[in-house]
From TrEMBL:
Free-text function comment from the UniProt entry: Specifically catalyzes the decarboxylation of meso-diaminopimelate (meso-DAP) to L-lysine.
Quaternary state and interactors: Homodimer.
Protein name: Diaminopimelate decarboxylase
Family under the similarity heading: Belongs to the Orn/Lys/Arg decarboxylase class-II family. LysA subfamily.
NCBIfam families, alphabetized: lysA (TIGR01048)
The encoding gene: lysA
CDD domains tied to this protein: PLPDE_III_DapDC
Pfam families in the record: Orn_Arg_deC_N (PF02784)
InterPro entries linked: Ala_racemase/Decarboxylase_C (IPR009006), DAP_deCOOHase_LysA (IPR002986), De-COase2_CS (IPR022657), De-COase2_N (IPR022644), De-COase2_pyr-phos_BS (IPR022653), Orn/DAP/Arg_de-COase (IPR000183), PLP-binding_barrel (IPR029066)
Coiled-coil regions listed in the entry: none
Amino acid sequence: MDFFHYQDNQLMAESVSVRRLAEQFGTPAYIYSRATLERHWHAFDDALGQHPHLICFAVKSNPNIAILNIMAKLGSGFDIVSQGELERVLAAGGDASKVVFSGVAKSVQEIRRALDVGIRCFNVESPAELYRINEVAGEMGKIAPISLRVNPDVDAHTHPYISTGLKQNKFGVSVDEAREVYRIAAELPHIVVTGMDCHIGSQLTELQPFLDATDRLIVLMEQLKQDGINIKHLDLGGGLGVTYTDENAPHPTEYAAALLAKLKDYTELEILLEPGRAITANAGILVTKVEYLKSNEALNFAIVDAGMNDMIRPALYQAYMNIIEVDRTLAREKRVYDVVGPICETSDFLGKQRELAIAQGDFIAQRSAGAYGASMASTYNSRPRAIEIMVDGDQAHLIKRRESFADLWRLESVLP
Ligand code: LLP
């Protein structure tokens, strides 16, 4: 459920007219709803009820500091994958002791900074990383808390580019190797084993793969017990899918209930989840202006001012996201359009074969754009990135200004 709806045929973000925002701030613009973000976070937090747990928002889905600050105020933890994300969490008032650090390529500098600020846990992805963390912690006179990312080899049934829990993926340590790696970890002097984690993929629309992965981790936890290694938290990653069009993604409540049923004998085991998309995707829209309409023998094109540099998901994953009119009071003829951007690439489209009632100069909105939209944006074709606006009830706040053209080359220099 989200707080974007039509009122008198005008698209509203909570109580604010999207058309008014587009006219006031310009396009392309991401517009987020605070109430939706909070509702989605609470859906996870409430679903795990009294069982010890921590929801660690996956920063990569949307790292704007206004969003991180809202999460921090809810008491959220954070899943990060770089020092940049760590610095954002800290800048936004997040609590370092609720941060878990995932990612296959943690550098010495990143490990040092994470130890310095006292993160909750490193989600370790290889034996080599384990040795590196032990060494850095040793130099700093610290003990590093770790979890091992176990690759359970289950098929997430999602797009191959966002599937991460199969043997052929680069992530984690295979379930067969993990017992031995834990044994090594337990003996390293500057490491303390605290958890076990996995993340099998993103945009999962079935619960079974999560449950299969959990089963495999439970078997491993039991084996570790025999080795005298006690796992205190189980982190099942992110990945819960959302409804972009007609997907029937499970609700966090169903997911949590199924997990709690599996883990009913583990009342002390803290459950961590790392949802990103399920919190942010439907809490945001991308608003764009129709610059031109154009037709040839085969197709009608709506050429808009947002491109694949602003929203790369359709180009990269053939993602389907709904596109709707912002103002439905206007008398327009309905036609089927390919909605394309200004970038000089054929893959530059927001959606194909969409029925829309639009004219030149109108605004349209791509829905479900709050996750992996702004966070994957680039300035390709030297286009300043989209602004970001947060609506909170009847108030709107500009949370990312438009870059100037000079910003585009601010870090560059010509030869002397
Ligand atoms: N935890 C880890 C370790 C992850 O790698 C990810 C996402 C998450 C949590 C959050 O997953 P979520 O709940 O958002 O599904 N750019 C792609 C998605 C890539 C996801 C990468 N990892 C897209 O636009 O579909």
